[in-house]
Amino acid sequence: MYRVALEFQVQASALVLRTGAVVRNQLRRASLSCVLNVAEGAGQRLWAQKRNLYGIARGSAMECAAIIDVLSVRGVATPAETGRGRALLVRMVSSC
Question: pTM of the entire structure?
Answer without folding.
Answer: 0.92
